[in-house]
Amino acid sequence: MSNSRAADAPARAPKSKPGSTRRLHLPQKMRNVELFLLLVACGINAAAVVLVQLGALGHIDTTLVVLGAGLSGLVLCLHIVLRFVARDADPFILPIATLLNGIGIAMIYRIDIANGDAGWDSAAVRQTVWSGLAIACAITVMLVIRNHRVLFRYTYVSGFVAVILLLLPLVPGLGREVSGARVWIGIGSFATFQPGEIAKIALAIFFAGYLVRNRDSLSMVGRKVLWMKFPRLRDLGPILVLWALSMSVIIFQRDLGTALLYFGLFLVMLYIATGRLSWVLLGMTLFIGGAIIASQTLDYVHGRFQNWLDALNPDVYGADGGSYQLVQGLFGLAKGGLLGTGLGQGRPEITPVPQSDYIIASLGEELGLAGLFAILALYLLFVARGFRIGFAGHDDFGKLLGVGLSFVVALQCFIVIGGVTRVIPLTGLTTPFLAAGGSSLVANWIIVALLLRLSDTVRNQPRLVV
Amino acid sequence: MNVSELTLLVLRLGFLLVLWLFIFGIVYALRSDLFGQRVRKQPKDGAPAVASAGLAAAFPSAMPAAAPVMQPAPAFVQPPPASAAAPTEQLSAQAAKIDLGPGDKATAQNATRLVITSGPKAGTEFPLTVESVTIGRSADSSLVIRDDYTSTHHARLMLWNDKWMIQDLDSTNGTFLAGIRLAVPTPVPLNTTVKIGATSFELRR
After folding, report:
1. Is any Cβ of chain A less than 8 angstroms from the Cβ of B167?
2. What is the ipTM of this complex?
3. Alpha carbons A329 and A423: distance in angstroms, whole number
4. Using one digit for the tens of pLDDT, what is the confidence trace for B120-155?
5. Which of A56-70, A446-460, B48-62 holds the top average pLDDT?
6. What is the mean pLDDT of chain A?
7. A213 neighbors A238 (Cβ within 8 angstroms)
8. Contact criterion met (CB < 8 Å) for A370 and B129
9. Do B145 and A394 touch (CB under 8 A)?
10. What 3-state DSSP class applies to A306?
11. Which residues of B touch A377 (CB under 8 A)?
């Protein structure tokens, strides 16, 4: 009896080996790298606030230090949670998000000083509190979703949730109209929220699940025209539905940027799922056609196009809703030059809404081209990590979800920063992590949590190193 | 407390510098992603047969005449990969030869483990689940093979219609199933050698 058990033991031992070798070789190496980068990021954030105070006030006071320390503490909490529930998660995503969030808070604080806001009027204080809430949401997501494949079950539920969230601002009494766009909901007089930001996550989950289930008919059949294979007419259903959805966002919610974001997300995920360039061409033709028709028929879209194409014309500059904001942003960027005026020493408050839509112009003025490129490099690294996670994924749903979530951040950056720098018409979207706005922060930190979860599942497969 | 212009200038430039140092720090930590994993050198005296076969795999077109001689499995004579034969002919010939392979095809039911049969970790086992197994030098592969002949993302074992298939991911030195270089995803028979770099493995019950 004991003999056979002894014979069993060596046979069983190698089976458990892949797991145990990993533990032996990598004692939380990823998490230690993350902790180091996180401490550096918190240090840079603190330095940014101190520099703002030195530049704008001429002395250091402790108002925001307490809140900033609270934020650093919460980020470290998330790090500790990762040590227990996702030890193989990507070590770079969290420090990058922390740094972007912190630089954003410093810049918003700088605008507050210029406007003389303090206490609960101060956007920086609210932003810090929202950051705390967003990181708490991220921790909850990490603890609740232990494997991203759970989300695959809720494909159609999340599609439904996304549609509901998109429709919420149109509900009378609940929806709020802010500078023309009807994308906000408000309860009472203060708590306003932009449900479209959360909807982008729900949409990414829905697209990933839907495309994994149905991509065969979208990728296999079709007629070849010239060198490209075009889909059959009857397979055009999904793309037309999405096109109609984004066009209705343009018409009813009067928000060009959100429409572009959703449609672009769908196109890219469709391209990745099917590998067909014809979908991208088809989709871009549809959207550009729709946008041109909208610019002819809808006044506000026409205004946006005119501000973009003819920004420096004095008539357009002086008009109500004209290009004043855009041109002031460009002047700010020009004033910043190569190295910037220094934190707290520029005049970013001249531009309307310098802390949300135009935070990139404010940062460009005070940190200069060098600082702005550093911020863009941070976004690049963040998105590259997301693509990398998608690439390394073992299941198709995870791959699509990883690429979709990181692409949505990239596209949003492009739409906002492209708008501010006059590459594309200006649309009202938030710069991820930087801009003042609670809903955007919550959504982006949930994206961080989902990417961390995905990267942990990818690396947490049984592994063997030869 | 008033701060002089000079201090502010130094602090301002210092801040930008630290920001960029942070970015380069991340890029430095990412270097294995950008330039590939560090290669572990094979011991010179250990397993000369393995090393020479690995060499043959490393330069298949450079010595087409020598390749068949060095193949460990004499049952199959490997056509030189860079031969003048039309690619379609080669593919059908390859499929036919692998169909003759010994034993059943490995399916989700009958294959439970992947056993390393040669190379530095010969004898090690790896459990098979329903997940696909990625093989390569990158740290995020399921089966990480760190030698000179393995590409970063080399090959992939996956279940297609319940059968284990192996797909070469356009690797530099190729994936060999029973001595034949793979061109298309191919079903893997049980107990048949799959060779990647200097490592070979089999799927077993």
Report:
1. no
2. 0.85
3. 13
4. 778 888 888 877 888 888 877 888 888 888 888 899
5. A446-460
6. 84
7. no
8. no
9. no
10. helix
11. 23
Give the confidence band of B61 by pLDDT, cuts at 50, 70, 90.
very low
List B residues 20-39 in contact with A (Cβ-Cβ < 8 A).
20, 22-23, 25-27, 29-30, 33
Q: At residue B125, what is the residue type? A: E
Question: Which DSSP symbol is given to B198?
Answer: T
A14 touches chain B (CB under 8 A): yes
Q: Chain B, 135-154: which have a CB under 8 Å from a chain A CB?
A: 138-147
SS3 A400: helix
Query: What's the Cα-to-Cα distance from A162 to each of A185, A272, A428, A446, rounded to whole Å?
Result: 15, 21, 20, 15
pLDDT number for residue B50: 40
Helix (H) or strand (E) holding A58: none
Would you call B3 and A58 a contact, using CB atoms and an 8 Å cutoff? Answer: yes
Query: Does B6 lie at the interface with A, CB-CB under 8 angstroms?
Result: no
As a whole number of Å, the end-to-end CA separation of chain A is 36
Q: Which of A248, A249, A243, A250 is nearest to A265 (CA)?
A: A243
Say if residue B100 is exposed, middle or buried (CB neighbours under 10 Å; 0-12, 13-18, 19+).
exposed
Residue A464 carries which side chain, given as an amino acid letter?
L
The whole-angstrom separation of Cα B159 and Cα B163 is 5
* Cβ separation B12–A342 shorter than 8 A: yes
